[in-house]
Amino acid sequence: MKVKKAVILLAGVFLLLTGCERKVEPISKSGFLLNTFVTVTIYDKDDPKILEGSLELCRSYENILSKTLEGSEVYLLNHRLAGEQTITVSKDVENLVSKGIYYSQISNGGFDATVEPLSSLWNFTSPDPVIPGADEIREATEKVGYENLKLEGNRLTFLSPDTGLDFGAIAKGYIADRIKDYLLKNGVKSAVINLGGNVLCVGEKPDGEPFKIGLQKPYADRNETIEILDIQDLSVVSSGVYERHFEKDGINYHHLLDPVSGYPFDNGLVSVTIISNLSVDGDGLSTACFSLGLEKGIELAESLEDVYAVFITESGEVHYSEGAEQFLAERK
User: Fold this and answer.
1) Helix, strand, or coil (residue 174)
2) What is the pLDDT of residues 140-173, one digit of tens each?
3) Where are the beta strands (DSSP E) in 217-293?
4) Which strand (E) or helix (H) includes residue 149?
5) 127, 215, 238, 264: least buried by Cβ within 10 Å?
6) What pTM was estimated for this model as a whole?
7) Residue 131 and residue 45: Cα distance in Å, rounded?
């Protein structure tokens, strides 16, 4: 583990569109999906239909995986009939439940795919946010527990009637991976998928250079960075206390909730960025590593193959897991 000093409170991920000569001009399309801005940029094909198909694919997954859209598969699972315990689920939900159980296990429950009873109490986007009552929070935490999920193939059993699914910490990564599959199937070899800061690079720039992905400097213009990463065919995902949050009486309440206490984690970390092959892994591990705190979080990242992590603390230090610094771009 190496440490670098920086004056920073927050961090984000975004693409730096700099310095690349191309025979084909990049084309891009954006939309508001998954409660965030989604942008797909293609560098080697001038085909707007592929862009439109990418956003339509994202919309179709939102209609499956959202916990709030009435009629979505996850919504219907969470509002299942009393006594309905074992349900046949789609391949996508099966995959996400499997991933969710895995991340829950390796983080000792710091990440929990069944956090829905708790997360539904908190509204971080309200113009007038309210801190839930202590009794409400305590009651909700008693309903959380990934051990209450039993997955056998596509048959999902809820061992408690109070168990609810929330894929908010992994859905964007999973969807980004599916969009990448779609782009590759359509012959795209150079693209960037950005789902609200979850960045997944398809290949490299047409000139063979890596994409430049910036870790954003806090309280500054989005083009100001603390670090720039050289990324080729990899995912970069950050989880931090700045993404969805509100402040009350000088305390920052953010969306990274501790399933045990029911309140936002308060462990000295501001953000965790994961570099990985699959975006779903970056998404899940950024939350899992954040939940464990600096030392155990780095230990988890370093125990996994082809996973690299950048941790930022409240004191302004930037910590790198082993091998992560190889992605730092040379500043000119």
Assistant:
1) helix
2) 999 999 999 999 999 999 999 999 999 999 999 9
3) 225-231, 235-240, 245-248, 251-254, 269-276
4) strand 149-152
5) 127
6) 0.90
7) 48
